[in-house]
Design goal:
The protein is of the alpha+beta class and 410 residues long. It is 34% helix and 20% strand. One of its GO terms (cellular component) is mitochondrion.
């Protein structure tokens, strides 16, 4: 039998919006000093330093979201997005047998918009959740954003930990009394491990002709680890591998097997077809990833075929499906019509339609982002049939997996 725990993982990265922040030369000095001391660094280490260095990291120093930041996420665009994710969570909670504890974990919670929309759906469907105990766990490296999240989700009902080395560096509760906890990294969340990204074979070094600039170089030879990560039938000339991302998918798969949890991953991505997706965003525009490190966001597409291999055969992997397909399967068209019918303000109606188009249009975010899920094998098991003379009741057929199956109305 499944234990009474539940885990939902949401990874959300989006594109950008305008900003003229000055670059952070101290980050460049830090990186060049590091390279001079130890030699070229991996792209994983470069990203880790640029984004999460505790002193000068991009995520630590800035509020990078929204019209005045460098990127904007789907939950910031429309409330409908978060509402449909909330419906997905409840649907999978029901599919798992309505366990007593419903534990939500979100990575990179932005301003808290997604969590707020999900919890609003929970409030509206309180009768469905019955006596389930709900808790929210946010993994956030940016102190700036954590304060914004706390204000949006808990108002003045949160406190920072007394000591900096505490795994939970902030605790609070929502107006409805739901507990909220903040963590700096995923391995601080109970029973979960962190995710980092790396780029195969490529390293970052100082340009010998311009000592104040960085450049990409090839490693002198494939490492045993990198050789093992490339499939024997690989046809691409360049391969990006999220090695430590594979580790967390394995940890998630183990959690799914042991606890009956479910994981939902939403991100830029492809199914083993793309190359060279490492890029920077600044002011809604593409930005040279090695220029002015610390002044722009860095991202790389998720290779979902790699995540599927890392998950193994002990879990059910669904997707990837495009954001357009997922949201339409979740009923975004019907939800939009309800909101439009109840809205008399012309400008608000125009905004609703514009947001819908941005989320679902294939030329915008509709085909850029993809959804991928890990589920317990029992979630999709066929009903048992009676054998011999036993008159056993047939097990109920599993519910369709919301978002990955077209929603039907009866």
């Amino acid at each position: 039998s499944l234990s009474h725990r539940w885990f939902t993982l949401t990874l959300l990265l989006c594109s950008a919006s305008a900003d003229d922040r000055m670059p952070a030369p101290s980050m460049l000095r830090h990186l060049t000093s590091k390279i001079k001391a130890t030699g070229p660094i991996t792209v994983a280490e470069y990203m880790r330093e640029v984004l999460t260095n505790p002193v000068t990291g991009y995520y630590v120093r800035n509020n990078m979201l929204g019209p005045d930041g460098d990127f904007i996420t789907s939950p910031e665009i429309s409330q409908i997005f978060g509402e449909l994710i909330g419906v997905w969570i409840i649907s999978e909670w029901m599919g798992a047998g309505r366990p007593r504890q419903l534990q939500l974990v979100e990575l990179g919670p932005g301003k808290g918009s997604l969590a707020a929309d999900v919890l609003r759906v929970f409030g509206q469907l309180r009768s469905v959740l019955a006596d389930a105990s709900v808790s929210l766990h946010l993994v956030e490296v940016s102190p700036v954003l954590s304060r914004i999240q706390a204000q949006n989700l808990t108002g003045d009902r949160s406190l920072e930990a007394d000591a900096e080395d505490q795994p939970v560096y902030r605790r609070g509760e929502t107006a409805a009394g739901l507990p909220v906890s903040w963590y700096r990294c995923l391995d601080d969340v109970p029973s979960v491990n962190q995710v980092l990204f790396t780029l195969l074979f490529v390293m970052v070094d100082i340009d010998p002709e311009k000592l104040d600039q960085l450049r990409f170089v090839l490693a002198p030879a494939p490492t045993p680890a990198s050789s093992a990560l490339v499939q024997v039938d690989e046809r691409r000339s360049h391969v990006e591998v999220c090695t430590e991302g594979g580790v967390i998918v394995q940890q998630l798969a183990r959690r799914v097997v042991e606890d009956g949890s479910a994981a939902l991953i939403a991100d830029y991505g492809h199914d083993g077809t793309k190359m060279d997706t490492f890029r920077g965003f600044k002011g809604h525009q593409l930005h040279d990833v090695l220029s002015s490190p610390g002044s722009a966001d860095l991202t790389a597409d998720v290779d979902f075929s790699y995540l599927r291999r890392m998950a193994g055969g002990g879990v059910a992997c669904l997707g990837p499906v495009s954001q357009r397909t997922f949201l339409k399967n979740m009923g975004i068209d019907s939800r939009l019509q309800v909101l439009l019918r109840n809205c008399g303000d012309a400008s608000t109606r125009k905004q609703l339609i514009s947001s819908y188009d941005l989320l679902t249009n294939a030329a915008k975010m509709g085909e850029r982002f993809h959804f991928f899920s890990l589920l317990h094998l029992s979630r999709l098991a066929k009903p048992r049939t009676a054998e011999g003379l036993k008159l056993e009741k047939k097990s109920p057929a599993p519910l369709p997996v919301a978002g990955f199956t077209e929603l039907s109305f009866s």
